[in-house]
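Please review this one:
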Amino acid sequence: MRFIGKEQSCILKMLLLSTSVSFFVMGTAIVSLPYIVRNVLSLNAEYYGFVESALGLAAIIGSIAAGLLTEKMKPGKLSIVVVVLGVFLFPAGIIFLLPTTAITRYIVNIISFCGMQIAACIFSIFALSMIQQRTPNHLTGKVMAYIATISMCAQPLGQMVYGILFDKFSNAVFLVLLPTGIFVCMIGLLAVNFFKSLEN
């Protein structure tokens, strides 16, 4: 706690950012897309199964992309990745304001959430890598366990909150998706200076 809070306060800030992103992104991705497919769009299990497969593939692509960007991705650019996460939620919400078919909304939401999944994987991998780089070997296990615990707690909390929100706004899911996109974009913009400071 002393190491994270005082000696390397940037790790604490990174932890808070990762937890915030995990709360909004994982809460939205895990709860909203299945809910939208089955309850809002009233599509059958085949469409739901394709969604799960697409998100899994997007996670793999995101992991591969993170490996390919290792040399090019500087800490200062991580704020852009967070903003991109939020931007991907805008089409998913806006499509419900337009007079389109259920299939069109389904396709737009798949593309949006897959894009968000790819960006989330890239951010998570680089964030964890940066934390490990700033942690001495004898504390790596303890620090990573602490970070994993906090992040894991944020995910079910986010899922619970978004489950309540989508149940309440089932007839207007854009009222959940669009504000979430705005919040995530704001997190990315507010973190610009922080990420740039990590380059020094």
Q: What stands out?
A: The longest helix spans residues 9-40. The mean pLDDT is 83.
